[in-house]
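For the sake of transparency, this paper describes our internal protein records without simplification. The tokens are whole numbers drawn from a learned vocabulary of local backbone shapes. One such record is reproduced below, unchanged from the form in which we store it.

. . .
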Amino acid sequence: MVYMTTKKIAPSILSADVMNLERDVKMAEAAGADLFHIDIMDGHFVPNMSFSPSIVEGMRRVTDKPLDVHLMIDNPDEYIRPIVEAGADTIMIHTESTKHIYRSIDLAKSLGVKAGVVVNPGTPLENVKELFPIIDQILVMTVNPGFGGQKFIPGMTKKIQRLDQLRQTSADDDFEIEVDGGINDETIVKCAQAGADIFVAGSYLYNGQPGFEDRVNTLKKLVEE
């Protein structure tokens, strides 16, 4: 099938000012952000720690935008229900974080939210092809997971392109392609041309100049061209 979808910009709150999170969320909304990306890390699955279900709950109180929650944690099944109950709209799970990824995806979907799988730079697409018919999104990590501000890995555009080709040739696959890591005004063009639909941007949006709204507008224009 020919897959077409509206391109979406998802600010990553990992780069926001956690002491002024509501301010940064409202700023992103006013700038035209389509959804928010929340990284939950446990310090075991990746060498960093960030956030918890309470952050999801807090964000749900201040925004109606979809909350896209990326679980970089061991034993994700233990946290899926609390995170959904906190207000998540999409749960993204690494294949390497669980022995039963199909069950984890099914659990999230049974709770009424979208569910997706995450592929690291070194994760072959063959490892997740059996999940294509049941997932809503697939997140291609364009950096090694764990820390913001990393440099985009150029070879990941080929993975995005191949993923897009695979879904275009199957009537059963209906998922969006999300990219996360090193997304800026240069790399977003390459990802969009390769077939990506959702673009997670953190450092570029929150830590650069000109202002936040100008940068969101720049990214939106680039993916719409």
Observations:
- The chain is about 35% helix and 20% strand.
- The longest helix spans residues 156-168.
- The chain has one domain: 8-224.
- The domain at 8-224 is CATH 3.20.20.70 (TIM Barrel).
